[in-house]
Amino acid sequence: MKTLCPLTRLTFTALVGLSACQPNDAGQDSLQQNDATLAGGANGRMDASGSGNVGDGGPVGGAGGAPTPGGQPMSGGEGGSGGQPMPGGQPMSGGEGGSGGQPVPGGQGMPGGQPNPGGEPVPGGQPNPGGEPSPPDDPFADGCPDEVFLDVASAPGPGPGYADPTLTARCANGRLLVTSNGLPHYTFVPLTPNALVVRNQNFDITLDPQLAAQPSEIPLLGVVGFTVNGLPFYGPNEAARPAAEAFGDPVYNGIVDECRGHTSPQEYHYHALEQRCLTPDALVAEPWRNPAVSSEVASPVLGFALDGFPIYGPYECEDVACARVREMESAWVQIGDPVSNAWDAYEYQESALPTSLDRCNGHLGPDGGYHYHATSTFPYILGCYAGAAGGGGGPIDAGPQACRVAADCVDACPDGSAGCTCANTPMGQLCVPTCRVAADCPAGRNGRMMICSPNQTCVPAMRP
Q: How many domains, in total, are found in the chain?
């Protein structure tokens, strides 16, 4: 399994629900929701919850590794502390420049490009009847890639009895701001006992991503980025339950739908990306029944990581002129059984092949900009963050700190906390702020009020 990362101070930016773990009559652990919540997580979103079955437990990843025994989430209770260790802390392939970074990514083709009659693919736009490749459409050319997001309001939505999906995307002050209600634009197919519920999503990333001096681990559990239909994606593993599949590969284990997503107690999210589900042609009830994606057309942007870099589908132009298109491939190799402990079942093996991606599942594209690719094999989307937090200056904030005892939590809670202790959560044992009165609690994400609960931990005030 992934080991706990060194216990270091992190900046908390979200609200995460806590639960107390108590044995039930059958000797199994059952999660009973209490008032405890904490601040933390790369994207800063969470409502309290403790009732998970199969699925994932929370949208916030923590710093450190797998949750410790005794504070495990319910089956599939994703969203806790942890991230894949970066062996040796080696820089990503081609990853020079820390704060200086690389230019803003761009240059990939937009959806809709078809092979032209001359046999060469046209990367984006309309077919070129002259037989010569046309320049690729660049969604970043005007400084705001809002055009890559889908018009989900025109799609049929998840089905009868559910709300219609919503999505907005805009740019302001050098940031890309995306909001949605967390519902898929296509027919929802339940694969876990967790219901599909409206989940207000708010994503805020830099428009000027920079490569970090060293890659950062993604959360073991929780949000890693978001897609062009406004939904979050997680890493390539599940949570601690069921025990037989603890931290296993959900794609390998067949517990994701045709668009590579499923529900947790908190939200619908992806563990891999299916291009057929994330293009304008996908605004139908069952996009997985659309024709297979052409390998002769460069893939469009399918989403963004929280470090700001875009994620394209698997196909890419070999050069700026796009005379040929190639499929980019993960360089992670299966070495064990990914039914459980997925990160132990795969190993990154660096390759000099031009189609092989770096450890983070990205590379410098033909235009010199860095981006990630969705691939058909592990880690499917990201293996780590190549970018710096906020576009420069340091690693991505991986969320609340993992702990074993209260002594692990010295200086681990946000500024303004009266104290900090180690508590059981659906995501394992994490450091949480303590209090005697509400004034002891730090502010939550986006200024959300925190109150002091009867068990003397800071929790978010209930929304009206």
A: 2
